TrEMBL record:
UniProt protein name: Phosphatidate cytidylyltransferase
Gene Ontology CC annotations of this record: plasma membrane
Top enzyme class: transferase
Keyword Cell cycle: no
Any one Gene Ontology BP term: peptidoglycan-based cell wall biogenesis
Species lineage: Bacteria, Pseudomonadati, Pseudomonadota, Gammaproteobacteria, Enterobacterales
Listed EC numbers: 2.7.7.41
Claim: Phosphoprotein is one of the keywords in the record: no
Transmembrane domains' residue ranges: 9-31, 51-77, 98-116, 122-142, 154-174, 186-204, 225-243, 249-272
UniProt entry keywords in alphabetical sequence: Membrane, Nucleotidyltransferase, Transferase, Transmembrane, Transmembrane helix
Protein's organism: Providencia rustigianii DSM 4541
GO MF term list: phosphatidate cytidylyltransferase activity
């Protein structure tokens, strides 16, 4: 069955329709304030919209190429995200060979396992083999200064940016009865719900937010933004149940799991940034910051969504 059916076309039409509306609104606001002093909020809004266009087009092109295109795309995302993470958490010269293995051996191998659909090894390769290899290789370098801290940082980076994120393309390997050949829609469902939840929590927080959830960590994350964003995203997930193998109520529960884990992911990665005294992990994506700033929610949501789907639907 071809993935390019009416359901996928309708889903993508909706995504790009939202982008068109956002672009028009951003253009009107920019024109309205064009004669005045530059408005940072409007400038940032339009920068974010432009970046969303680029990200969505790249995602669609990967889907057009097929499963291999999706796997390569997320392998590249993992590479850049790990690079940002390692840059933020400086290592020592004696760690460089271990990092070489991470970037040029372990990332490709993890995604090859996804590509060949070897679930048994894919699911344990990083948390078992890589996690045991890294402290061994670092210890062999003979540098004991902050050994545990250095090892833990690299392991955490591999866990979040490689192992967790690789569960997104791994959705393509699931064999769901009556849903064969349509898994890319499940992947897009995960991405859409995760990202729209981030956007809606931000919007509700700006419009209604008064009570920060964790003031010292992320004052912009408010109770009102959290509740409004989560509930609205769950409703959107229910409305999109037709692109999934789920019933409408199961799609709602899956959306709830995705949004809650996405929120936790953003919170945990914010803690790392605050501890390091920075606002963003990088500046690779205009208006959004770094690669890791954009996928932090997805990194935490993907493995939970993958295993819930695999357990209940395969």
């Amino acid at each position: 069955m071809s993935i390019w059916d009416g359901e996928l076309a309708l889903l993508l039409s909706g995504v790009f329709g939202i982008l068109i509306v956002a672009s028009v609104i951003g253009g009107i606001l920019a024109y309205r304030y064009s004669g005045e002093k530059s408005n940072p909020t409007i400038d940032n809004l339009n920068a974010r919209i432009r970046a969303w266009w680029v990200m969505c087009i790249i995602c669609v092109l990967a889907v057009v190429i097929g499963n291999i295109g999706v796997v390569i795309l997320f392998a590249l995302i993992s590479f850049f995200a790990l690079r940002e993470f390692i840059t933020l958490t400086p290592t020592r010269r004696s760690d460089h060979e271990a990092l070489f293995w991470c970037f040029f051996v372990f990332i490709p191998l993890q995604y090859v396992l996804v590509g060949v659909e070897w679930y048994g090894l894919f699911s344990i390769f990083v948390p078992v083999f890589v996690f045991l290899f890294l402290p061994t290789r670092i210890a062999l370098a003979g540098d004991t200064v902050h050994f545990l801290e250095r090892t833990a940082k690299i392991q955490w980076g591999m866990l979040v940016t490689v192992f967790c994120l690789s569960h997104v393309p791994a959705l393509l390997m699931l064999n769901i009865e009556g849903y064969q050949g349509e898994n890319v829609k499940l992947l897009l469902f995960l991405i859409v719900i995760t990202q729209i939840s981030d956007v809606l929590q931000y919007v509700f927080g700006k419009l209604l937010g008064k009570r920060p959830i964790v003031p010292k960590l992320s004052p912009n994350k408010t109770v009102e933004g959290f509740v409004g964003g989560i509930l609205t995203s769950v409703l959107i997930g229910i409305c999109l149940y037709w692109v999934t193998p789920f019933s409408w109520w199961a799609a709602g529960l899956m959306s709830l799991a995705i949004t809650l884990m996405g929120f936790v992911g953003g919170l945990c990665m914010s803690a790392i940034k605050r501890d390091s005294g920075i606002k963003d992990f990088g500046a690779i994506i205009e208006g959004h910051g770094g690669m890791l700033d954009r996928i932090d929610s997805l990194c935490f949501a993907a493995p939970i969504f993958f295993h819930l789907t695999r357990y209940f639907y395969t």
